[in-house]
C-alpha cells in the first residue's frame, strides 16, 4: 500500500499539485474559525460572527460551481489566479477595516467566499493527465480525500497558533497570503497550463443536466449534514462531561478514522461498478454513525468516533469517480465543484438543524441526526439506482469518449469499471 502511494507521489508534478492545492485551500478550511475569532477580537458578538461566517460560506457555495464552469470554458490559470487574488484581497480588506463599517465587512467576506478558487475540483480534473494510469488516479482520489481531512484538522490549529503568536488580523492575512501562493504554485505548473476541457454543449444547466450527478449531489448533501451535526453534537457531549477538550478528541478520532479508511481504500483496486460500491460505502458510513447514539464514557466514545470515520474518505473518493463518469461533456471541473458545494451546504445545514435537537434531547439526540443523515443519503442513492447506473456503452467506447471529453486535451483514459 505504501509503495503504491510513493509511486503516485513520485510521478512528475504530483507532489507539487497536491501540496499547492492543499495550501491554496487553507483559507477555505480555516475561514469559519478565523472569522469568528477576528470578529470577537474586534468587539463583535457571536451573532455577528456567525452571520459573517455564514456570508462567507454561502458566497463560497455559490462561487465554486460558477468558477468551476469558467475553468472548463477558459482554463485554470485564467480563472483561478485572478479568483485567488480577489478572494485574498477581500479577506485582507476585512482584516484591515474590521467590522466597522459593517456593510464593508459583509461585502469583504462575501467577495472572499465568492472568489475562492475551485482548486479542489481543478486538481481532480488534472489527475488523469498527470498520472496516466487508472490505478494511480484511483489512489490519488483516496489520498486527496485523506489530505482534505488532515488539512481541515491542522488548518484551524495553524490559525490558533498564529493568533497566539501575533493576533487575529495577522492570522487572517497570513493564511490568505499562503492561499494565494498555493494557488499560484498550481496554476503556473505545466499540467495546469496545458489542461483544456473538451468542447461543451451550450446549456445553462451545465453539469446539473445530468440526472446521475443530481442524485449524487442530493445524497452528499445528507452526508455533509451528518458530518455537520457530529461537530456540534461532539461539543454538546463534551459540555455534558465538563471537559471541552473531549470534543477535540472525538473530532480528531473521526479524522483519524477517515485517514486510515482512505489510505486502505486507495491502496488497492476494487472490482465492479463504482456506483454499486458507493452505495455499500455510504451504507457502512451510516451504520458507523449509529453507535454514537449510545453516548458511552469518553474513552469508549472516542473509539466509536474513530470507527464512524472509517468510511468517510472512501465514500468521498468513490464519489469522485462517479462524478467523472456522469459529468456531461466539458463540465468536469464544474461537476466536482458542485459536489464540494453540496457537501458544504449540507454540513452548514446540519450545524443549524442539530442545535434545537440537542436542546430538546441532549447529545444522544444530536448524534441520532447524524445517523438519520447517513441513512437518508443511502435512501437517495438506492432510490436513484437506475439514474446512477453505469453507462451502458462498452468499456472501450467509454474510454474513448471519456478521454476525449472530460480529462484533458492530452491522451487520457476512463476510470472504467475498476477505479
UniProtKB/TrEMBL annotation:
<feature type="transmembrane region" description="Helical">
    <location>
        <begin position="211"/>
        <end position="238"/>
    </location>
</feature>
<feature type="transmembrane region" description="Helical">
    <location>
        <begin position="335"/>
        <end position="358"/>
    </location>
</feature>
<keyword id="KW-0472">Membrane</keyword>
<feature type="transmembrane region" description="Helical">
    <location>
        <begin position="45"/>
        <end position="67"/>
    </location>
</feature>
<feature type="transmembrane region" description="Helical">
    <location>
        <begin position="364"/>
        <end position="383"/>
    </location>
</feature>
<feature type="transmembrane region" description="Helical">
    <location>
        <begin position="303"/>
        <end position="323"/>
    </location>
</feature>
<dbReference type="Pfam" id="PF07690">
    <property type="entry name" value="MFS_1"/>
</dbReference>
<feature type="transmembrane region" description="Helical">
    <location>
        <begin position="79"/>
        <end position="99"/>
    </location>
</feature>
<dbReference type="InterPro" id="IPR011701">
    <property type="entry name" value="MFS"/>
</dbReference>
<protein>
    <submittedName>
        <fullName>MFS transporter</fullName>
    </submittedName>
</protein>
<feature type="transmembrane region" description="Helical">
    <location>
        <begin position="17"/>
        <end position="39"/>
    </location>
</feature>
<dbReference type="InterPro" id="IPR036259">
    <property type="entry name" value="MFS_trans_sf"/>
</dbReference>
<keyword id="KW-1133">Transmembrane helix</keyword>
<feature type="transmembrane region" description="Helical">
    <location>
        <begin position="244"/>
        <end position="266"/>
    </location>
</feature>
<feature type="transmembrane region" description="Helical">
    <location>
        <begin position="278"/>
        <end position="297"/>
    </location>
</feature>
<feature type="transmembrane region" description="Helical">
    <location>
        <begin position="169"/>
        <end position="190"/>
    </location>
</feature>
<keyword id="KW-0812">Transmembrane</keyword>
Amino acid at each position: 500500500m505504501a509503495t503504491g502511494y510513493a509511486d503516485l507521489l513520485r510521478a512528475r508534478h504530483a507532489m507539487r499539485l497536491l501540496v499547492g492545492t492543499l495550501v491554496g485551500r487553507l483559507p477555505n478550511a480555516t475561514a469559519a474559525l478565523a472569522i469568528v475569532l477576528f470578529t470577537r477580537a474586534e468587539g463583535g458578538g457571536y451573532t455577528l460572527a456567525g452571520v459573517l461566517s455564514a456570508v462567507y460560506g454561502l458566497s463560497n457555495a455559490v462561487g465554486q460551481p460558477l468558477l468551476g464552469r469558467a475553468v472548463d470554458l477558459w482554463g485554470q490559470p485564467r480563472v483561478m489566479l485572478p479568483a485567488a487574488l480577489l478572494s485574498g484581497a477581500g479577506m485582507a480588506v476585512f482584516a484591515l477595516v474590521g467590522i466597522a463599517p459593517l456593510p464593508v465587512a459583509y461585502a469583504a467576506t462575501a467577495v472572499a467566499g465568492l472568489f475562492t478558487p475551485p482548486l479542489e475540483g481543478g486538481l481532480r480534473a488534472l489527475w488523469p493527465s498527470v498520472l496516466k494510469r487508472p490505478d494511480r488516479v484511483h489512489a490519488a482520489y483516496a489520498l486527496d480525500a485523506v489530505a482534505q481531512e488532515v488539512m481541515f484538522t491542522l488548518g484551524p490549529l495553524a490559525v490558533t497558533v498564529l493568533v497566539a503568536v501575533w493576533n487575529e488580523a495577522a492570522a487572517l492575512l497570513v493564511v490568505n497570503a499562503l492561499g494565494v501562493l498555493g494557488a499560484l504554485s498550481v496554476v503556473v505548473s505545466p499540467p495546469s497550463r496545458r489542461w483544456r476541457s473538451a468542447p461543451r454543449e451550450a446549456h445553462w444547466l451545465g453539469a446539473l443536466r445530468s440526472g446521475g450527478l443530481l442524485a449524487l449531489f442530493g445524497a452528499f448533501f445528507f452526508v455533509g449534514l451528518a458530518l455537520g451535526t457530529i461537530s456540534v453534537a461532539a461539543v454538546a457531549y463534551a459540555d455534558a462531561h465538563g471537559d471541552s477538550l473531549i470534543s477535540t478528541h472525538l473530532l480528531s478520532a473521526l479524522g483519524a478514522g477517515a485517514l486510515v479508511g482512505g489510505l486502505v481504500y486507495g491502496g488497492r483496486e476494487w472490482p465492479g461498478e463504482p456506483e454499486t460500491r458507493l452505495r455499500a460505502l455510504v451504507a457502512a458510513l451510516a451504520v458507523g454513525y449509529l453507535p454514537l447514539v449510545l453516548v458511552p464514557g469518553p474513552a469508549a466514545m472516542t473509539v466509536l468516533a474513530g470507527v464512524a470515520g472509517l468510511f468517510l474518505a472512501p465514500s468521498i473518493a468513490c464519489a469522485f469517480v462517479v462524478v467523472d463518469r456522469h459529468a456531461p461533456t466539458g463540465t468536469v471541473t464544474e461537476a466536482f465543484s458542485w459536489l464540494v458545494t453540496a457537501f458544504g451546504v449540507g454540513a452548514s445545514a446540519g450545524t443549524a438543524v442539530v442545535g434545537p435537537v440537542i436542546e430538546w434531547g441532549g447529545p444522544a439526540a444530536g448524534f441520532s441526526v447524524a445517523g438519520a443523515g447517513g441513512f437518508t443519503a443511502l435512501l437517495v442513492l438506492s432510490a436513484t439506482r437506475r439514474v446512477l447506473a453505469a453507462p451502458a456503452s462498452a468499456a472501450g467506447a467509454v474510454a474513448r469518449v471519456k478521454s476525449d471529453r472530460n480529462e484533458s486535451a492530452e491522451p487520457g483514459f476512463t476510470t472504467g469499471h475498476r477505479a
